[in-house]
Amino acid sequence: MSSEERRDGRTRREFLKGMAAGAGAVAAVRVAQAALVPPGSGVQAARPARGAGYRETEHVRTYYETARI
Fold it and tell me: Can you give the residue ranges of every domain in the chain?
């Protein structure tokens, strides 16, 4: 048995070929899924409500005060 061969008979090269083929299959599925949803079909990415971002509240100010060096 060569140093590159595993017990089941697969070589490192065969393993890497299989990984590349699997990655290609995943990419093809993702492209196909994107093609199934036409633009403007009502399916949109989830966005937070306006104003739902960072807010400096009292407990945040307290943390800032205690974290000063």
Answer: 1-38
